[in-house]
Design a protein that fits this description.
Blueprint (H helix, E strand, L loop, with lengths): L2 E8 L7 E6 L26 H49 L1 H6 L1 H23 L3 H10 L9 H17 L4 H5 L14 H13 L3 H15 L9 H14 L3 H14 L6 H19 L25 H10 L16 E4 L4 H4 L3 E7 L3 E6 L4 H11 L4 E2 L2 E2 L6 E2 L6 E6 L5 H14 L9 E6 L28 E8 L5
Helix pairs in contact: 1-3, 1-4, 5-7, 7-8, 8-9, 9-10, 10-11
Pfam families: P4Ha_N, TPR_P4H
GO cellular component, one term: endoplasmic reticulum
Protein name: Prolyl 4-hydroxylase subunit alpha-1
């Protein structure tokens, strides 16, 4: 499970700002920070937290058992149909058709023929329709309250998370489709249908860049599949339109022609072809020079490197830090960065100081190592897990709590009096920072899901956010202490 615990320290008057970070004995590679409180529970959103995804594994196991039982019952039923109906009917029909006139002259044979196609057929029909599948499906989807099923929103969220990881870590589409991600165990390869679904989700979100990447991967894979998992015509239609939306009308026309060769009477392709042809003619007219020559660009081979650079530099720096590619520390400031054993002048830590790493000068960012034990971490996770709910952010204008696509996680809050371990963690924060926790918010435990993230933001309220923490009555935040509890990607 991916957990981050944090305490936001506040004060009535805030004259300075510090940032503190505490790590357990487990190494981590991603840091998240928290802004606001929770909201009401929803039945979906399993993609926002690993703890809910783990529940899906149990659900999948129960479904597999149900399918196995269904196959066993159906095989028995089909064998009964084969032995009692097909074989017997086939034998009698073969005798009857060998000499139908002589056969039907026998009144008994005539009677049995009528009986077989009336009463016996009704019995056969009943046996053929006697499938246990519907009852089994209803049992597992409606009667099992212990099972958790994802919804359409979860599929969209899982797809967006994978695309977010692809962008942030600059992962190659074909490599991802092979199930290869550095630092993780290889997964099964994606089918053409899997790639198509990622492309379709991108298309539904208006993301034509990723639509092209994944539809092209689906197109490459469907040609290699013996048992086709998706209709090639569907791939070509999505790919053509997204290619057009990315500005490559000529290649969109080529893909549409390929589609029409495959499905000559496709309901939309002919109209799309005419539209693309007109667009090319109009572009040619606009670009025609004095000499009458026309220069139009050729086909574009879309790849991860061809994405338009429209993001802010802050976003680029953020993603570089996630990839461990960039250091924002100036050489002049590096002399202020060091490691030491730190006690903060507290009697308890004089003989057993903690390991401190100063990683940034302004704002001050410290990393304290081996401050919390693995056992304490497990207790915090145990206390928080039943309370996890979709995390929210505070709208800067309205002050209301709301869901946001830039914060994908679930959170829970723990009070000091709930368990001695929670109180001890708060006390250590107070001892090592020199700041009182009497005005601090409760310990927040955050569980991130697939591609879970919280984009760069300020933990404290800015000047224009005058009522951000008014309900707390403790003033603005002046420091954030994060406890990173498990390795995450």
């Amino acid at each position: 499970m991916v957990f981050i615990s944090l305490i936001n320290l506040t004060a009535i008057s805030h004259c300075y700002s510090k940032s503190f970070m505490m790590s357990s004995t487990i190494k981590l590679i991603l840091i998240g920070v928290t802004l606001c409180s929770l909201s009401h529970w929803t039945t979906s959103e399993v993609f926002t937290a690993i703890v809910d995804l783990e529940k899906l594994l149990y659900t999948e196991g129960e479904i597999i058992k149900t399918i196995e039982k269904y196959i066993e019952v159906e095989e028995k039923r089909l064998q009964e149909i084969k032995s009692k109906l097909k074989d017997e009917y086939g034998r009698l029909h073969q005798v009857a058709t060998a000499d139908s006139q002589s056969f039907l002259e026998n009144p008994i044979n005539a009677f049995l023929l009528v009986k077989r196609l009336s009463t016996d057929w009704k019995l056969a029909e009943s046996l053929m329709l006697k499938s246990t599948g519907k009852a089994m499906i209803e049992n597992i989807t409606q009667s099992r309250e212990d099972l958790k099923f994802p919804e359409d929103e979860d599929l969209t969220g899982a797809a967006e998370a994978l695309l977010r990881l692809q962008d942030t870590y600059k992962l190659d589409t074909s490599t991802l489709a092979r199930g290869q991600i550095t630092g993780t165990k290889p997964s099964h390869e994606l089918t053409a249908n899997d790639c198509f679904e990622l492309g379709r989700q991108s298309y539904n979100n208006g993301d034509h860049y990723h639509t092209i990447l994944w539809m092209q991967e689906a197109l490459d894979r469907v040609d290699e599949e013996t048992n086709k998992t998706v209709d090639k015509a569907d791939i070509l239609e999505y790919l053509a339109f997204s290619t057009y939306m990315q500005g490559n009308t000529r290649h969109a026309l080529k893909l549409t022609n390929d589609l029409l060769e495959l499905v000559p009477h496709h309901p939309r392709a002919a109209g799309n072809r005419a539209y693309y042809e007109d667009a090319i003619k109009n572009a040619a007219h606009m670009k025609r020079g004095d000499d009458g020559d026309v220069q139009l660009g050729g086909d574009v081979n879309y790849s991860e490197s061809s994405r338009a650079d429209t993001e802010l530099s802050e976003r680029e720096q953020y993603e570089q830090l996630c990839r461990a590619e960039s250091s924002t520390v100036d050489l002049d400031d590096q002399r202020y960065l060091f490691c030491d054993y730190f006690s903060n002048g507290h009697p308890y830590y004089i003989l057993q100081p903690v390991k401190r790493e100063i990683v940034f000068k302004a704002p001050k960012i410290y990393i304290f190592h081996d401050v919390v034990s693995n056992k304490e971490i497990e207790i915090v996770k145990y206390l928080a897990q039943p309370r996890l709910k979709r995390a929210t952010v505070q709208n800067a204008k309205s002050g209301e709590l709301e869901y946001a696509s830039y914060r994908i996680s679930k959170s829970a809050w723990l009070k000091n009096e709930e368990h001695p371990v929670v109180w001890k963690i708060s006390q250590r924060v107070e001892d090592l920072t020199g700041l009182t926790v009497s005005t601090a918010e409760e310990l927040q435990v955050v569980n991130y899901g697939i591609g879970g993230h919280y984009e760069p933001h300020f933990d404290f309220a800015r000047r224009e956010e005058k009522n951000a923490f008014q309900s707390l009555g403790t003033g603005n935040r002046i420091a954030t202490w994060l406890l990173l509890c498990k390795l995450i990607l």
